[in-house]
Design brief:
Blueprint (H helix, E strand, L loop, with lengths): L18 H17 L7 H5 L7 H6 L2 E7 L6 E8 L7 E2 L3 E2 L3 H4 L5 E5 L6 E6 L5 H8 L9 H11 L8 H12 L3 H5 L7 H9 L7 H11 L2 H17 L5 H12 L2 H12 L5 H17 L5 H14 L5 H9 L6 H9 L6 H16 L12 H4 L1 H23 L1
Helix pairs in contact: 1-20, 9-10, 10-12, 11-12, 12-13, 12-14, 13-14, 13-15, 14-15, 16-18, 17-18
Length: 404
């Protein structure tokens, strides 16, 4: 859930056409997935995010301006340059994507952004010219994909006063950056959060799209009244099997009540066989975010809960495998190896998580140096990517040579 919009065109002539390079890309993509680092963004926040504009569009793009529509709708007059060079004559006559009739009637300047790889300027909506300085500051910030934990804490602290700013685009940008932030960075704001304001935002139907974020923040900033309210909401959700906003509510409940509620989640969502997969996934998301933060709920307690989940839902074990790999918890290597090798016991949708875990365990310096099972060289997950990809490539190349 980080970064801007990038459009690139890739064309190459090859004696085997485009399919052979595609097979190589497929192979390399599989290896990249297997060896990549886990994203730091809060998965709960990203799940509730509907993006229109974030600071990352300004950071990534080469040019951005504030411009007013010209009379007659035949172009735009630049009133502020946010990033990059001034357009010739401070006028934009090129095509502007999303510049509909409503935009062309705007009395506020429009934020227009263009990158070198884009064919057109893109209209991201109206914003007051007085915000130009703030936009320049955002455009000059570091890409969030490269931020460390301390930089993330500074980033959300800077943007906190802009949540629900009267200027709609300012509020949207602040929300979008919060939605990409790690949960641990949100927790660092606890001394500065206004619980009363967050309650108001959380109850506002007009802000329903932002409810996930505000539920999480209320869990961090709230008190006993919020814990009681969450308990009632969670009981109702459990009875109706409703997974809407469930992950955020469970994470907030854990933040407010601590370890005592982990057993409740284990009983209600991991052991109860009547739970739906979306409910279980929501509970795992909440536990995972708490495990990454390693604060209100210690990571060891989250891993204990994962043991219960894996025992009760072996076929879904891949849902927690990436977390366990991130935390270098390799005790599950024998279990996950057995699941991968068993016939028909693992749903394909969750198999990749187990393969990721097993590959990481074999490439980790502190992983368990366990011998492979009989004929294990054929079963090693890393070799799945190498052997299958190489076989497809070699077979297709041979077929093309015969056709010449």
């Amino acid at each position: 859930m980080d970064g801007g919009t990038v459009n690139t065109l890739w064309r190459r002539h090859h004696p085997c056409g485009l399919a052979a390079p595609f097979l190589l890309v497929l192979l390399l993509g599989g290896l990249t997935f297997a060896l990549s680092h886990v994203a730091t963004a809060c998965a709960l926040c990203l799940a509730g995010r509907t993006l229109t504009i974030s600071a990352q569009e300004l950071v990534y793009a080469g040019r951005s301006v504030l411009a007013l529509p010209e009379a007659g709708g035949k172009g735009f007059r630049v009133v502020e340059v946010i990033k990059g060079e001034h357009p010739p004559g401070d006028a934009i006559t090129d095509t502007v994507f999303r510049a509909d009739s409503t935009a062309m009637r705007s009395t506020k300047p429009l934020l227009l952004i263009r990158d070198d790889a884009w064919r057109w300027w893109v209209n991201f909506g109206p914003i007051a010219a007085e915000q130009a300085g703030w936009l320049r500051q955002l455009a000059a910030t570091k890409r969030t994909t490269g931020m460390n934990a301390a930089e993330w804490r500074d980033h959300v602290a800077y943007l906190l006063p802009y949540l629900e700013n009267p200027e709609p685009m300012v509020a949207e940008i602040a929300f979008a950056e919060f939605a990409s932030a790690p949960y641990a960075a949100l927790r660092s704001l606890k001394p500065h959060l206004d619980a009363a304001a967050i309650r108001k935002w959380s109850d506002d139907p007009a802000l329903a799209a932002r409810q996930v974020l505000y539920t999480l923040l209320l869990g961090i900033a709230g008190g006993p009244q919020d814990a009681e309210r969450l308990e009632k909401s969670l009981e109702a959700a459990w009875k109706s099997k409703d997974s809407t906003n469930l992950g955020a509510e469970l994470a907030a409940d854990l933040e407010l009540r601590g370890q005592s509620r982990v057993s409740w989640i284990e009983e209600k969502y991991f052991v109860d066989r009547n739970r739906t997969v979306p409910e279980i996934q929501a509970a795992l998301l909440a536990m995972g975010e708490q495990g990454r933060a390693d604060a209100a709920i210690p990571r060891w307690r989250v891993i204990d809960a994962y043991r219960v989940f894996i025992r009760e839902h072996e076929a879904l074990a891949g849902l927690v495998a990436k977390d366990l790999a991130e935390w270098k918890c390799w005790e599950f290597v024998p279990k996950f190896t057995a699941i991968v090798h068993s016939s028909g016991s693992q749903l394909n949708a969750y198999r990749n998580g187990l393969l990721y875990y097993l590959v990481c365990s074999r490439n980790s310096e502190d992983g368990m140096a366990r011998p492979l099972p009989p004929n294990g060289w054929l079963r090693d997950p890393l070799l799945y990517f190498l052997v299958i990809g190489a076989t497809l490539f070699a077979g297709y190349s041979a077929l093309r040579l015969k056709q010449r």
